[in-house]
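Subject: complex prediction, re-run

Hi both,

The earlier run crashed halfway through, so I resubmitted it with identical inputs.
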Amino acid sequence: MRVAMIGAGYVGLVSGACFAEFGVDVCVVDTEVSKVEALRAGRIPIYEPGLDKLVSENVRDGRLSFTTDLSEAMEGADAVFLAVGTPSRRGDGHADLSYVFAAAEQVARAAKGPLVLVTKSTVPVGTGRQIQELIARVRPDAEIEVASNPEFLREGNAIGDFMRPDRVVIGAESDRAFQVLRRLYRPLYLIETPIVQTGIETAELIKYAANAFLAVKITFINQMADLCEKAGADVHDVARGMGLDGRIGRKFLHAGPGYGGSCFPKDTLALARTAQELGAPATIVEQTIAANEARKEAMAERVIAAMGGSVAGKTIAVLGLTFKPETDDMRDAPSLVVVPKLAQAGAIIRAYDPQPSHARQLMPAATHFAESALDAADGADALVLLTEWNEFRALSPERLKATMAGNTVLDLRNAWDPQAFREAGFQYQSIGRP
Ligand code: UDX
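This time it finished cleanly. Structure:
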């Protein structure tokens, strides 16, 4: 089998490397020359655990290559995957499909033999149909079948998610397209991965529905956490007690400062827009979007309130800036709302993140980037845990107390033991716990 993967971004790189690991010949194509050069030299432009090893091994074994030339990548390909970006369009929240359509048109023009054109990028329901129309216009003679094969990769765990998925979703309209895609995923038969074969529109919608549902689930437990605080209940136990009901499930019931990342914020917005346009408004999703936005603002206000109503001139240590641990991704991270708001209110920020490469450019100019969690805490009046990197879990409350000037701790991820922090002399607050 041969595959061309268009787009050397997060999804394209992970999927390309994993297909190569399955034994498929994969050529990843990207228009950015410097990116392709870096990949050829063995440098991975993103941080994802295990990806560098997977890429280098498969390049060494001759199954994975990189190019800027689409025709070269498509030479002999059974399937061409679209893994280009679909950012939110400015103004209306719709997914911006210009990269998808541009790439689909280039594929149509370059196609020689029969091939399956598969969207891996998250695209709104109806996009596959539009791609079919585009191909029919540009190259009515080409033997191109359109399919949808959405990804469900979590950042930080993407390789595991690809290799051991809960399911594979394939949306297509011909036996040939289903066959090509099933063959690509053949190694997963061994672990009995369910394959959901369906129409193109359905496959497109599964991806949005799954992400929106998870965003709703998180927002629900966040609101329960607020209620717990008022009612004197413990959200941790509420989540456990709820989650043990098999119909609900325990995952994604962890209260926090609001969801972020490259998918949930953008996909909920795009789903809400599509649903509105098609006349079937997804009001639960609309409410979720609004509640999550408001929550990030509320987290900054919570810090200010914990400092007695003003943070002017106060030094605040912020631990964790990325939207979640094990990534350097800052897209829609709560820190992008919380830190500027605290800085605007006059706080002096000492921040630490284990992967600060993108955060450095995105935090307010006066932010001091510390070299470690303890360095950030040095002389701080308050400490805010925003993202629960593992290395923060083991921090000793006594050492923090000895390092800090003040005694306020806001654990916005419920990562620490309240009793241990209170015994060390802290005014400790977490989310939805008494
Ligand atoms: C998500 C989906 O999980 C994945 O299937 C999809 O393809 C892409 O979007 P990702 O964005 O990498 O993956 O992160 P995920 O681990 O799902 O977390 C998303 C956000 O929700 C993070 O900000 C995280 O902190 C937050 N979250 C998650 C919670 O606040 N509570 C939870 O219980 C789970």
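The chain is about 45% helix and 15% strand.

- K.
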